[in-house]
Amino acid sequence: MADPSRNFGEAAARYTAFRPDYPQEIFDFLLAHVTSGRLFAVDLGAGSGQATRNLAGLFSNVTAIEPDGRLVEEARLPANVKIELKAAETAEFAEASLDAVISATAFHWMNQALVCKNAACWLKTGGAFFPFAPDAFQVAGDASDYFTDEFDKWRPYRDRRLVDCYDYEAALKESGVFASVLPYRQTLRHQLPSAAAAGLISTFSFARDYARDHGGEDYFQSVKDTLTRFGETVTFIVPIIGALGVKA
Known about the structure:
- The chain is of the alpha/beta class.
- It has eleven helices and eight strands.
- Strands 1, 2, 3, 4, 5, 6, 7 and 8 form an eight-stranded mixed β-sheet that branches.
- β4 (98-104), α5 (112-122) and β5 form a beta-alpha-beta unit.
- The model has no long low-confidence stretch (mean pLDDT 92).
- This is Class I SAM-dependent methyltransferase.
- Residues 42-130 form the Methyltransferase type domain.
- It is an enzyme of class 2 (transferase).
């Protein structure tokens, strides 16, 4: 099976159309622990820019690090964002030059120990590294059993990093490079029209890999048709997990 972390760009338009924006509370948590200033910030694994746009409204200068140019083309980023097409592990910034580094739904795909070490080097005293991501979702209401059955089909296609590398708090603590590590957790409810719910599912790497072997776009059309029969909207219950490391 192909490495899904290399294939996100093929779904770039889907990410832009269907991935919801991150809530402001996430960035409020970041700002509450950044005491170095709001001059320079970096988004590692920026993808189609959902979190980058938030960051650009809070910091004067933002750099989006993303290896797949197809995703960046869909991002529509503000003028104060600089784009660098490279992997997070190869990014380079001057020591003690950044106020914040984030990674939104991407840290589990990275060499976590190396990224932690690099981020701690780049940060100013009082700066923070904050990776966060949605955890396994649930679906409320009549569609719940249907999603449980579909997830059982997707499960063999889930990359092990989606299981083994999701303890962000442990990764930051084990790195030993931050003065303190604070856990973050929030639960969101997204109520989406049936078509948008089916579109969101089509952005999941494991669902796309399953679809490649089971009808391609016809599979996602069947998901959309089934969800429509359940009603006009689908409610996703999504835990957001994360951890924030502070530079002493």
